[in-house]
TrEMBL record:
InterPro entries: AcTrfase_RimI/Ard1 (IPR006464), Acyl_CoA_acyltransferase (IPR016181), GNAT_dom (IPR000182), YpeA/RimI_acetyltransf (IPR050680). PROSITE patterns: GNAT (PS51186). Its main location: cytoplasm. Belongs to the acetyltransferase family. RimI subfamily. Residues 1-147 form the N-acetyltransferase domain. It is found in: Cytoplasm. Acetylates the N-terminal alanine of ribosomal protein bS18. One of its GO terms (molecular function) is protein-N-terminal-alanine acetyltransferase activity. Keywords: Acyltransferase, Cytoplasm, Transferase. It is an enzyme of class 2 (transferase). This is [Ribosomal protein bS18]-alanine N-acetyltransferase. The keyword Membrane does not apply. It catalyses: N-terminal L-alanyl-[ribosomal protein bS18] + acetyl-CoA = N-terminal N(alpha)-acetyl-L-alanyl-[ribosomal protein bS18] + CoA + H(+).
Length: 154
């Protein structure tokens, strides 16, 4: 498995992962727009040995803040550390780009994701009521400060 920066050619592979992972997936048009907006977005893909995209992670960068858009893995790749690998690559790129904080939303029932985020230094800031649909669920808004992350990974 390798992680690399996403290209426009990766949109269809990212969309396939998106459809497998989320109950309300982004459209292929949205993914193309995200990948085209290199000034604002950072996307990375996880490729298997056949060069198929089996995961991806994305972030919006605005001044000195990052907002994670999505992190998704095909079912066959979950629980093997690949989500953490993708997240670490994305976060390191954000820190190098000048971000001091990274924010994200996560379903409050997504225990594997919450465990990973806490492991990497994220803390809960607030709850967004009914943020997700299908099923309707609240989200935690979480934040990781660059200095907290650096302290944790030492």
């Amino acid at each position: 498995m390798i992680v690399r920066k996403a290209k426009m050619d990766d949109a269809v592979g990212i969309y396939a992962v998106e459809k497998e992972t989320f109950s309300v997936p982004w459209s292929i048009e949205s993914i193309f727009r995200e990948l085209a907006n290199e000034e604002l977005t950072r996307y990375y893909v996880l490729e298997d040995e056949t060069k198929s995209i089996v995961g991806y992670a994305g972030l919006w960068r605005v001044t000195d803040e990052g907002q994670i858009t999505n992190i998704a893995l095909c079912k066959c790749c979950r629980r093997n550390g690949y989500g953490e690998l993708l997240l670490r690559v994305l976060m390191e790129a954000a820190w190098e780009d000048g971000c001091n904080d990274i924010f994200l939303e996560v379903r409050i029932s997504n225990m594997p994701a919450l465990h990973l985020y806490r492991k990497l230094g994220y803390t809960v800031l607030s709850v967004r009521k009914n943020y997700y649909s299908k099923p309707l669920e609240d989200a935690y808004v979480m934040n990781c400060r660059k200095e907290n992350y650096r302290r944790i990974i030492r």
